[in-house]
Design goal:
mainly alpha
Length: 182
């Protein structure tokens, strides 16, 4: 039903459980792991554990906390140590992209952090401009990051539940790669 990414993701979850989810989402949150299949890993984990809340809750919590920790590490590194993560080759974000999301923060403030974390492709990018150009405290940034991550991971959980209940047949019409792009 899924491709090789999902098979690898399922093997990681089977071997390491929620720790694998936490690690991948923390790296994604820290802008380092944007190339890792975090979405595929999470949806595969939900499919693997089923739809019971007791089974999904640790996976959900690991993803949300991992993303929040990763983004908070970037925020603190930029704020306290004047780090520039965009200068690293492992961070696939450049100054132009940061300028665009920085304008979001200028206009909307902390709600922009939450909103950007709920949108695939911009997750975590506001950590750098928020740390550089504002007086937002680390706990307030982490709270906004957490809110957006809950929305994002909740949407991914809904996709996983839909796959478990058989809505995955519709995804089959679009190809197995559709899950990876969510």
């Amino acid at each position: 039903m899924f491709g090789s990414h999902a098979a690898t993701a399922l093997a990681l979850v089977d071997s390491y459980g929620a720790i694998a989810i936490f690690a991948v989402f923390a790296l994604e949150g820290a802008l380092v792991g944007k190339m890792l299949p975090a979405r595929t890993l999470f949806v595969t984990a939900v499919v693997a554990v089923g739809v019971e809340a007791v089974a999904v809750l640790p996976v959900f919590a690991a993803a949300v906390v991992g993303a929040t920790v990763g983004q908070s590490v970037v925020f603190v590194a930029v704020r306290r140590f004047d780090a520039d993560p965009t200068s690293l080759r492992v961070v696939p974000v450049d100054e132009g992209q940061l300028e665009g999301v920085g304008r979001w923060f200028d206009r909307w403030g902390l709600p922009a952090v939450a909103a950007s974390n709920a949108v695939p492709g911009t997750r975590g990018w506001l950590a750098v401009p928020t740390a550089n150009a504002s007086s937002v405290s680390a706990p307030r940034f982490a709270a906004a990051s957490l809110v957006g991550s809950v929305a994002y991971v909740g949407a991914l959980a809904a996709v996983g539940v839909a796959v478990v209940f058989g809505f995955g047949d519709a995804l089959g019409a679009f190809g197995a790669g559709a899950v990876a792009y969510l």
